[in-house]
Automatic annotation (TrEMBL), chain A:
Name of protein: Putative membrane protein
Source species: Actinophytocola algeriensis
Topology versus the membrane: Multi-pass membrane protein
Keyword Transmembrane: yes
Localization (cell): Membrane
Automatic annotation (TrEMBL), chain B:
Similarity comment text for this entry: Belongs to the thioredoxin family. DsbA subfamily.
Transmembrane region(s): 12-37
Organism this protein belongs to: Actinophytocola algeriensis
PROSITE patterns: THIOREDOXIN_2
GO molecular function, one term: isomerase activity
Source lineage: Bacteria, Bacillati, Actinomycetota, Actinomycetes, Pseudonocardiales
Protein name: Protein-disulfide isomerase
């Protein structure tokens, strides 16, 4: 039962992340073909994929970040589908998922920091990736904790407040976004 | 394990749900509360901004200690305040046709203050305002103001000349070259551009503009009275503005 829920999260979260990463890749390609191209998600100086995509942080490893997303979210989606088809991942496989989602969540928070405090712009597709990576990491972590004897008690305790942690996590990010772009939001009122 | 998790499931979820709802409600309440509070604050201020009679010029339309000034009058009786956006095409046109000459012609007679009013529709406006503020921090506001408007076509307009540029990196390179040209310390310039203090000053100008009803740029006030352009050409605007200033100077 618990595995089934995680499988659905992988499948749906993976697909959503894959869609966002694909959109970003396509925007990047369009922009490379025509430097004056304005991405569909560049609405104004604050909501601006263009300025985020053009930042040095958008190519953290020397190539556009969304390529990582396309590869990684495809794996997450596939794992979710395989689990729904009856595959029970062995421990080493779960640890692999843990490593992958941990990398993802750290990377995403580095990007959030860059977006808010260096680039001063938000990119909607990137925010979709933020939003799915956090639960993917969180529920994978709970699963990892609960499948090992030594950490099961801690895992169960945290699982008792799984959505509280998630909601708090989201709320902190939402509030940080509101604070940074305060004057922009307040002009919308 | 089976027993443990069953009891946990019986009590756990409800505590979890309660806590989750509490977090969400708290977040919404805090955000909503701040928004409402801010809004009513603005409303209160708006009433005071209405008076434009020469006797009661609102503070927003006067010189303040940290104002960006282009000229300073020795007696300080006439203050022209322009709310501007460095990337706004109309502001650039005003600069070329009206305010650049005004600045030299009335150099000793008026205090010419500019206030930042970067509009959301101009992608590089805020960055340019930051550059101007950072230059001001080194005492070279006027020089940077001229660099930004004299080189408007270079940094603000996209290749082809039809649309506004949104190339922040390219603009940053140009701003650096302007900073070098007017002799700024580049490291300090970079730090000041992105400092919280710079951001606050720009935000304060925008808030001041909103208080006195500015909604587009350029908006110019002479001793608190708003210039409402009546003519069709920049020549007409120029004459009208000079008329207002001359009147204020008692000519």
């Amino acid at each position: 039962m618990r595995n089934n829920r995680l499988a659905w999260l992988y499948l749906v979260g993976g697909l959503v992340g894959l869609a966002a990463a694909t959109a970003l890749t396509l925007e990047k390609l369009a922009k490379l073909a025509d430097p004056s191209y304005v991405p569909t998600c560049s609405l104004n100086p604050v909501i601006s994929c263009g300025s985020v995509m053009d930042s040095p942080q958008a190519e953290a490893f020397g190539f556009p970040n969304p390529l990582i997303g396309v590869a990684a979210f495809a794996v997450v989606t596939t794992v979710g589908a395989a689990m729904l088809a009856g595959f029970t991942p062995p421990r080493w496989f779960r640890l692999g998922m843990q490593a992958g989602t941990t990398f993802g969540v750290v990377f995403v928070h580095w990007l959030i920091t860059a977006s808010l405090y260096d680039i001063h712009a938000l990119c909607p597709y990137c925010m979709v990736v933020w939003a799915v990576t956090i639960p993917l990491f969180w529920y994978t972590t709970l699963d990892t904790l609960r499948t090992s004897e030594r950490t099961r008690a801690a895992g169960d305790a945290l699982a008792g407040f799984h959505s509280t942690v998630l909601a708090t996590w989201y709320a902190v990010i939402v509030i940080l976004v509101l604070i940074v772009f305060w004057d922009y939001w307040s002009t919308l009122l | 394990m089976a027993r443990k998790s069953r009891t946990a499931q019986k009590r756990g979820p409800s505590a979890n749900v309660i806590a989750t709802v509490a977090v969400v409600v708290l977040a919404v309440a805090v955000i909503g509360g701040v928004l409402l509070f801010n809004r009513s604050d603005d409303d209160n201020g708006g009433g005071g901004g209405g008076g434009t009679g020469s006797g009661s010029i609102p503070a927003e339309l006067r010189t303040e200690p940290d104002s960006n000034t282009l000229t300073e009058a020795s007696d300080g009786t006439v203050t022209v305040v322009e709310f501007l956006d460095y990337q706004c095409p109309a502001c650039a046109a005003y600069y070329a046709n009206v305010t650049k000459k005004l600045e030299t012609d009335y150099a000793e007679e008026i205090t010419f203050v500019t206030r930042d009013f970067p509009l959301a529709m101009h992608p590089l406006a805020r960055q340019a305002a930051q550059a101007a503020r950072a230059a001001a921090a080194q005492g070279k506001y006027r020089e940077m103001y001229h660099q930004l408007y004299d080189n408007y076509e270079q940094w603000a307009v996209a290749p082809g000349g039809q649309e506004l540029s949104d190339d922040a990196q390219q603009a940053a390179t140009f701003f650096d070259s302007y900073a070098t040209e007017i002799g700024l310390d580049l490291d300090r310039f970079h730090t000041d551009m992105t400092s919280a203090a710079t951001g606050r000053r720009i935000d304060a100008d925008v808030a001041a503009g909103e208080k006195v009803g500015v909604s587009s740029t350029p908006t110019i006030f002479v001793n608190g009275a708003k210039l409402e352009p009546e003519g069709e050409t920049y020549g007409d605007v120029d004459r009208q503005l000079r008329g207002m200033i001359d009147e204020a100077l008692g000519r």
